[in-house]
Amino acid sequence: MTPSDTPGGPGDPRGRWTDLERPPLNATALSRALVRPGGLWAELEVVQATGSTNTDLVARAGAGAPEGVVLVAEEQNAGRGRLDRTWTAPPRSGLFFSILLRPGAAGVPTSRWGWLPLLAGVASAGALSRAAGVDTALKWPNDLLVPVGGEERKFGGILAERADDAVVIGVGLNVSLRADELPVPTAGSLALANAITTDRDPLLRAVLRSIEQWYGEWCRLEGDPAACGLQEAYAAGCATLGRRVRAELPGGGATVGEAVAIDGDGRLVLASDAGVQEPVSAGDIVHLRPASPEE
């Protein structure tokens, strides 16, 4: 396909882009701003459409792609969330990207790699709070929340996949979705949260720079979540803590209790009605009541 044949290209009578409120990402400017000698990001590629950026990057990791590759899609038609759930959104309505990391090369033991999706959540939430001017929160283990109409709404999710000695982290963020475009009524977007901007270029730059900063410090301290401040930062931004929740566990079964802590392995610690504390390493979390006012 030549540039003149590309939708929105110079030969397209519809103009540079077909939705004036959703311009395409500027791959050249993003690369110039993020890819630099000595930095984490080695390559940034923007594709018009793909099935899943995670699937694509896992394959490239297996073929020896270096750490720091970033793959961004303007549209995903087979995007995946946790438990193989689908993630779909209109073209150019969000940020859908994956990054390839090789923490073992920095001496981080594999026992601490489970912190990477939480690290990506802390980095993304903090960056978007600053760049978009919205209150963001984390729902354990991998959701990002914003307030819409006085309610917490999920607007983002994170998926980490192991690929031999690499980890691929996928991030999906609803940016400009309107109410009638939401996949489910309980979802949200930065636009619906009254963000000060929905320009995806500066938002993506902010998120990737924040991930680079957190990842660099985490690697420098051999993945120690307490020493680098990650454990404390996650707990501070986690809307799950202080709530009564139901953890729906893989393979069936559920545990109900108050979410009281994030432990050193990134697990959610629940205190049952019987006073027993139980760590949960994986599962779907349902918030059963709001956090306590004093928290």
Give the arrangement of secondary structure elements.
Elements: H1 27-34, E1 43-47, H2 53-62, E2 69-73, E3 79-80, E4 86-87, E5 94-101, H3 116-132, E6 137-139, E7 143-148, E8 151-163, E9 166-174, H4 200-220, H5 230-237, E10 244-248, E11 254-262, E12 268-271, E13 277-280, E14 284-287
Parallel strand pairs: 1-2
Antiparallel strand pairs: 2-5, 3-4, 5-9, 6-7, 7-8, 8-9, 10-11, 10-14, 11-12, 12-13
Order of helices and strands: HEHEEEEHEEEEHHEEEEE
CATH 2nd-level architecture of the largest domain: 2-Layer Sandwich
The largest sheet has its strands arranged as 1-2-5-9-8-7-6
CATH superfamily of the largest domain: Bira Bifunctional Protein, Domain 2
- Percent in strands: 25-35%
Q: Per CATH, what is the topology of the largest domain?
A: BirA Bifunctional Protein, domain 2
Main sheet characteristics: 7 strands, mixed
The stretches of 5 or more residues where confidence is low (pLDDT under 50) are: 1-17
> How much helix, percentage-wise, in residues?
10-25%
Explain this structure.
This is biotin--[biotin carboxyl-carrier protein] ligase. InterPro entries: aa-tRNA-synth_II/BPL/LPL, Biotin_CoA_COase_ligase, BPL_C, BPL_LPL_catalytic. Keywords: Biotin, Ligase. The chain is of the alpha+beta class and 295 residues long. It folds into 2 domains: 27-236, 2-Layer Sandwich (BirA Bifunctional Protein, domain 2); 240-287, SH3 type barrels (Roll). The chain is 22% helix and 27% strand. It has 5 helices and 14 strands. The strands form 3 sheets. Strands 1-2-5-9-8-7-6 form a 7-stranded mixed sheet, sandwiched between helices. It has a 5-stranded antiparallel sheet with strand order 13-12-11-10-14. Helix 3 (116-132) crosses helix 4 and helix 3 crosses helix 5. The longest helix has 21 residues, at 200-220. It is globular. The N and C termini lie far apart (55 Å).
